[in-house]
Design goal:
By secondary structure, this protein is α/β, with parallel strands linked by helices. The protein is built from 10 helices and 10 strands. Bound molecules: (6S)-5,6,7,8-tetrahydrofolate (THG).
Length: about 290
């Protein structure tokens, strides 16, 4: 099962036999006061830095979220999509809870985007899936509905199955264009939550066979040593069947743990990527040493 995302000039393939897809989380004002203020003034200069840092860190796609209080989110999404597509050739994940912002982002985007996200609520499905179909985009599906964000992995699977059925059956969206989000929650709130996420990943892998993604930084929220937790969590999730994550691509600790897991889980034939990246770092270190 391969999910193909495209920018104007580049393709990224997500799959259980592929290197893990690192989606950079950083273009998102949530929890960033200064960035929120800048966006309220229509200043998107911070995005340049966030793109550069994530590219340097090894991002393979970028999440774009413009959700902040008192902003025209649809207008900002249009500007951000244009800006980011001018700065790099990575496919984008258009992230908003506002349907107008998803629509505006999709209209502006050149390529095959990932739409983030749809829930199992009938009203959301009926509003968002026609847009996804019309643009030939892929989608992230969250297994929660109007009643609950279920804790039980079996219930999450049930809601994931519902979304897959509606998306493929009613709207004719190819099953390979649906990424299930098994719901990552803060370990700081309840230390049993990550086990639920890992169980859900395992169940979705077994029962639906589709690709998955999640917000990896949710797990470490509010805890010290976030990078260590990320570097431990992601290989566990990959072993259970996770094929991509919206994550901190700027962290060498986390990115290198993902690359190591790719190699150890046989998603890096002959260790070619692992060795190439090691040689690149060695050459960089040598160049730095010669400068001194
Ligand atoms: N699933 C899906 N999409 C998502 C999420 C998810 N999109 C948003 C979010 N969750 C994933 N993205 C982030 C981005 C940043 C952080 C967490 C998740 C984060 N930011 C720092 C903070 O708030 O502490 C920023 C602080 C700062 O730099 O000042 O932790 O679950 N489908």
């Amino acid at each position: 099962m391969h999910t193909v995302l495209k920018s104007a000039s580049k393709e990224v393939v997500i799959g259980h036999d592929q290197p893990f897809c690192i989606i950079g989380e950083r273009i998102n004002p949530t929890g960033r006061k200064l960035f929120q203020e800048q966006l309220r003034k229509g200043d998107l200069s911070r995005v340049d830095i966030d793109v550069a840092d994530q590219l340097a860190g090894g991002a393979m796609a970028l999440d774009v979220n413009m959700g902040a209080p008192l902003v025209d989110e649809a207008g900002l999404m249009v500007q951000a999509v244009k800006l980011v597509q001018g700065l790099c050739d990575l496919p984008l994940c258009i992230d908003s809870s506002v349907i107008e912002a998803l629509d505006a982002g999709l209209r502006t985007y050149e390529g095959k985007a990932l739409v983030n996200s749809v829930t199992a609520e009938d009203e959301r499905l009926d509003a968002i899936l026609p847009l996804v179909k019309a643009h030939g985009a892929a989608i992230i599906a969250l297994p929660n509905d109007e009643e609950e964000i279920p804790e039980e992995p079996a219930r999450r699977l049930e809601l994931a199955r519902k979304i897959v059925e509606v998306a493929t059956g009613t709207y004719g969206i190819p099953v390979e264009d649906i990424l299930i989000d098994p719901l990552a929650m803060p370990i700081g709130a309840d230390t049993s939550l990550v086990n639920r996420t890992l169980e859900t990943i395992h169940l979705v892998r077994e029962e639906l066979g589709v690709n998955m993604t999640l917000g990896a930084s949710n797990v470490s929220f509010g805890m010290p040593e976030r990078h260590v937790l990320g570097a431990c969590f992601l290989p566990m999730a990959m072993q259970a069947g996770l094929t991509s994550a919206i994550m901190d691509a700027r962290s060498p600790e986390i990115v290198r743990a993902v690359k190591a897991a790719d190699l150890l889980l046989d998603h890096d034939p002959w260790g070619a990527n692992w060795i190439a990246e090691h040689r690149k770092r060695e050459a960089e270190n040598k160049r730095e040493a010669e400068k001194r």
